[in-house]
Amino acid sequence: MGYKIAVAGATGNLGREILNILSEREFPADEVIALAPRRSLGTEVSYGDDTLKTRDIDGFAFEGCDIALFGMGPEDARKYAPVAAQAGCVVIDCSEAWRMDASIPLVAPEVNAAAIETYREKMIIACPDAATSELVAVLKPLHDRARVRRVVVSTYQAVSGAGNEQMDELWNQTKGMYVPGQEVEPEHLPRQIAFNVIPQVGAFMEDGASRAEWQIVAETKKILDPSIRVSATCVRVPVFVGDAESVNVEFEDFLDEDEARDILREAPGLLVVDKREDGGYVTPTETVGDFATFVSRIRQDSTVENGLNLWLVADNLRKGAALNAVQIAEILGREHLRKG
Description:
alpha/beta; Rossmann fold; Dihydrodipicolinate Reductase, domain 2; 6-stranded parallel β-sheet; 6-stranded mixed β-sheet; 9 helices; 14 strands; 31% helix
């Protein structure tokens, strides 16, 4: 006997990716329900070889559903997730709505899957931001070996992490650069994104950090270790899919780059591609559609006593969000709900 699964926000990029991965990984579902806001009512989405017609989330009670995977924005998640939880349905939410709630587990499956056990208090499990997910998956095995003291990370984040309108803006601005009179002014991003980079992801906070930068700091501490000091700079780049990160790590103990490379090769969810030659690394283009977080450019940092530099890349939609949510659902089904 399989599970009854709801996917909320099924018409968005993330929701569609969740449906794809549920099908690809053959999640044991007897029924999958695609939910969307009323404006998308009746839109058809793919689930493997099947086509699902979306249902109105406003009128959906979640009764009888075992798990709901939410690919909606934080406002919608705050509105609908408690409805599902009250109906006895476990919510796995990919937005920032619940990440810093102390009573809700924030789970990166390769890092702290054991935290799932605490889901019963609120019946909600939060997924980290895609940039955090990528970072902590790499830090975890290194932290276990040499104890991470401080991390400085600069992210280069794809426009798909901001939404469909931002992806369209990049596409239209790029076309407009070649057609006189068809230039497209920024509307959904603070500056032109085509052929440009924007050192702002999310709104600015009182201390000058952007929301995305604050999230990386706070989420890394909650997931991995509150004692780790983290400094983040987040940049939006003219890439549709695929987030990259330049990471400098300072450890308590010395860690040789060759040993670090071996540790990362053995870690779950990671692939090391690190050749010291032209093109001997991974870029966002190569990660699209892949489940792994790729690690390249592993090298000693001579400016600190125990430092390493790394280059990380992952598909922000597939690995950074959708796969994490499905992996959590798999653990729930295998170890906690145990239906059938």
